[in-house]
Amino acid sequence: MTQPKIIFLFSGKRKSGKDFISEKLLSRISSRFPPPCATIIRLSAPLKHEYASQHGLDYTELLTASQYKEQHRHDMIKWGEQVRARDPSYFIIRAVHLAKGESFPVWIVSDMRRRSDLQYFRTNYPNECVTVRVSASPDARVNRGWKFTKGVDDAASECDLDDVCAWDHDIDTSHGDEATTSALIGQLLQRCRDVGVVVT
């Protein structure tokens, strides 16, 4: 596996905006440095794939922000925790492979949710990790379609990183401020330049 030059680790609660910013960062990098040098790694993707396969569900629907996914989210989280209890790195290794991470110098991990995720990347890639915490007020998240779900929003998948304070970057997306988002993207692009990934 090729060693990545930089790994952006995004963390945030549901409807915080972490996926939006991850996609925006990928778009900016891809438009400025062809051929593609970055990939989004979704740690939940192999979990959803295996859960769908074992339970006869529609994998593509589980990847969307749909009611179908919400119907299965609680049981899927519970199943995933059982797998992680046996091997905390199980889904991470598969997510990297699924995203063809070995082919890209820039990894954008869009959904880091647990301390074990953070520990894995910091242990295996101690010089490449850049952490980004994305937050939003409850009202802003409600306006984006979030609804508190017991067993989901109070589970480790949403709360395990709440007490972590030492983030390299953090952003509050409550007001949808484009200037603030652009400023963060600019800082992350500069980090790419600093490690030799040339983006303009």
Please describe what this structure looks like.
- With 200 residues, the protein is of the alpha/beta class.
- The protein has a single domain (6-194), classed as P-loop containing nucleotide triphosphate hydrolases (Rossmann fold, 3-Layer(aba) Sandwich), CATH 3.40.50.300.
- The protein contains 9 helices and 5 strands.
- The protein has helices at residues 18-32, 44-55, 59-62, 67-86, 90-98, 115-124, 138-143, 156-159, 178-194; strands spanning 6-12, 38-41, 106-109, 129-135, 169-172.
- Strands 2-3-1-4-5 form a 5-stranded parallel β-sheet, with helices on both faces.
- Helix 1 packs across helix 9 and helix 2 packs across helix 5 (90-98).
- The radius of gyration is 16 Å and the shape is globular.
- The mean pLDDT is 91.
What is the 3D shape? Answer: globular
What integer is the average pLDDT?
91
Number of helices: 9
CATH superfamily placement:
P-loop containing nucleotide triphosphate hydrolases
**Helical fraction:** 40-55%
Poorly predicted segments: none
Rg over CA atoms? 16 Å
The main sheet orders its strands as 2-3-1-4-5
CATH architectural name: 3-Layer(aba) Sandwich
> For the report, how would you describe the main beta sheet?
5 strands, parallel
